[in-house]
Amino acid sequence: MEPAELRRIARTISTVENQADGTDEVLAQAYRLPRWADVIGVTGPPGAGKSTLVDALTAHWAANGERIAVLAIDPSSPYSGGAVLGDRIRRTRSVGYANTYFRSLSSRGHVGGLSETATDLVAVLSLFEFRRVIIETVGAGQSDVEIHDTADCTLVLTVPGLGDGVQASKAGLMEIGDVFAINKADLPGADDAMRTIENALGAAYMGNPGISPRPNIPNPVSSSYAVSPGLAALRRRHGNFGEDDETWVPPVLKLVSTDNDGVPELAQTIDTFIEWSDRTGRRRQRSRERAYAQVMRALSALLLAPYARAPGAVQIPSAVDSWVERIAGGEASPLEAARALMNKLPR
Amino acid sequence: MTPATAGAAQRRKIRVLIAKVGLDGHDVGARVVARGLLDAGMEVIYTGLRRTTEDVVRAAIEEDVDWIGVSILSGAHQVLLPKLRRLLDEAEAGDIRIIAGGIIPQEDIPALCENGVSQVFLSGTSIAEIVDYLMRESAPQSKDMT
Predict the structure, then answer these.
(1) pLDDT of B145
(2) A282-312 pLDDT, tens per residue?
(3) In chain B, which residue's Cα lies nearest the Cα of A2?
(4) Cβ within 8 Å of residue A330, ≥6 positions away
(5) Which of A82, A149, A292, A303 is the most buried (most CB within 10 A)?
């Protein structure tokens, strides 16, 4: 890409990120594209090596001539609204490819691991004919799971030594992976970490890692058992073993990203998943979930707009301030305030 | 004003690329400045060490920054800073402005300023001074910023 084109892309992203004039037109066009870029989400705890892996994957795909973009999100300060965005430091292997674009984004106060406009920006990048977009989430805590309906393939990255089997059984991050990877697998404990995740997955999945065909024998687990909501959600994402023609079992791979060890295999696994997800209609189902989540977010932003405090501002909007004063003084409850304010919303 | 554009004025942040160019391995100063600008509400992108001027220009364009802050302690400022300016101008990114800090002799400053560096901050400069400068100088170009 020539500098002029990079500038155009960068400025369009700024427009949408700042919700400046022109945003509505850009989004109206972008969301009407017949097809978006394949979105790969990379998430995991701080220090797992997300930025280094994203750089390695970018270089891997860019070497095949693919047009590829990265959106790397880091947290904003809750106090100043500012941010130090450091994911670019690891852009060393991919920087030489002219067919790549890298943008650092501040979460700008948004919780959930992404920024408010991240999904919109995927649409915008699709408008600029990117074939693939990698999103790097903020260093994720256990509940930063918004990526799971934004990405077509979510990679959960972890490292040896973070905790025992109980951590892997917990809700949140461990439930959203389409592919799992242990980075820094040259460190002691990599096999333990791998086994821990595989065991946790084994409680929910049948079949071998990757694509499993329907077995010839009937499902040994009687279908008369009630299906728990958690299991039902996994089946919606990855299929129901014994029922569907093909199901997906999230593979767990070992990597040393700094040496590129395991990176080509990981890239292949991601492609296999996206191809499977496309072919079986799961991808379309996921994009419906994504659309619903986005409508809800946009709706709540529009509804809250009259009362929302500007990012970084200290002043509480006056309509809310009198209620805040009464709540702080022990004269009202937040729920009473919310009901009263809702009734005053402009129709 | 449509709902989508409401608040756009407040959403716009000053974006600054903090850059280390050439063979210069010390970035404590760069990181202190980055932290100070964060505290002032700016979005700071750090390039990491030992970048080429070409890398820095590419980063500045991709990140759509208003400023590049170059920390330079290697003594190569008279070569690298004018080159950075020239590459930016050639990439039609003349609106991206450069500030510099680090070990720079007083007598070199006029030549740097003539060659497209907006301001040089020598060691001993307070963060507040840099923040003040960026806030003041960013305001007229971006009228939507309060």
Answers:
(1) 41
(2) 999 889 988 998 899 889 888 888 898 876 6
(3) B91
(4) none
(5) A82
What does the alpha-carbon distance between residue A159 and residue A302 come to, in Å, rounded to a whole number?
40
Q: Residue A51, exposed/middle/buried by CB under 10 A (0-12, 13-18, 19+)?
A: buried
R_g over Cα of chain B: 15
Q: Do B44 and A308 touch (CB under 8 A)?
A: no
Provide the token pair at A19: 């919700």
Picking from B145, B48, B132, B114, the residue whose alpha carbon sits closest to that of residue A311 is B145
Considering the domain B13-139 in this protein, what is its CATH number?
3.40.50.280
Cβ contact B99:B120 at 8 Å: yes
Residues A38, A39, A43, CA angle at the centre, nearest 5°? Answer: 150
Domain ranges of chain B: 13-139
Show the tokens assigned to A326: 């009464």
**Is B46–A3 a contact, with Cβ atoms under 8 angstroms apart?**
no
Q: Is A301 left (phi over 0), alpha (psi -120 to 50) or beta?
A: alpha
Q: Are B68 and B99 in contact (CB under 8 A)?
A: yes
Where along chain A do its domains lie? Answer: 3-205+250-281
Cβ–Cβ contact A81 with B under 8 A: yes
pLDDT at position A305: 86
In tens, the pLDDT along B93-134 reads: 999 999 999 999 999 999 999 999 999 999 889 999 999 999
Nearest CB partner across the interface for B61, out of A6, A79, A308: A6
pLDDT digits (tens, 9 = 90+) for A136-151: 998 876 667 778 888 9
Residue type present at position B59? A
Listed by number, the residues of chain B in 26-85 with a beta carbon closer than 8 Å to a beta carbon of chain A are: 34-35, 37-48, 55, 57-59, 61-64
pLDDT at A154: 94
CA distances from B31 to A52, A62, A210, B125 (A): 20, 31, 43, 14
The domain defined by A3-205+250-281 carries CATH number 3.40.50.300: yes
Does A78 reach chain B within 8 Å, measured CB to CB? no
| Rounded CA separation B54/B50 (Å) | 12
Q: How far is A172 from chain B (nearest CA, A)?
A: 29
Q: Residue B39 corresponds to which amino acid?
A: D
- Please name the residues in contact with A225: beta carbons below 8 A apart, sequence gap of 6 or more: none
Contact B14, B63 (CB under 8 A): no
Of the ranges A216-220, B56-60, B69-73, B138-142, which one carries the lowest mean pLDDT score?
B138-142
